[in-house]
Prior knowledge:
alpha+beta; CATH 3.90.470.10; 3-stranded antiparallel beta sheet; 3 helices; rod-shaped
Amino acid sequence: MAVVEKRAYIKEVGLAPRKVSVVAALVRGRSVADALTILDNTPRRAAGAVKKAIESAKANLLNVASIDTKTITIKTISVTAGSRLRRYKPASRGRALPFAKKMSNILVVVEGNEKVKKATPKVDPKQGESKPKKAEDK
Length: 138
């Protein structure tokens, strides 16, 4: 059985990387089915973004090869800082205080085992499927 890997890279998620990495730590190293169940029941906004990334990686894996869906696991999941939007908030005495809206990048790598192909018996094209004749039939 060959192990196949595929990845999904979701860029510029509008959530802070610190908050997304807490959710990613919940599902790191688990099977995809378990991870999706955990994320469905996680009451954090980042759970939706992480779930979307895992489902995308799973779809990438299933589109390439015939994979046994029970063997799909999350090999790595990492969250890095994306770009920042610089904004200003009004303050007293006509001032403007700067702040940054942080964004995240989510990388998910999943792996799974290929399905075992059943061996088909080879048929000689000259004989077809007919049985060989016995000596008594002559």
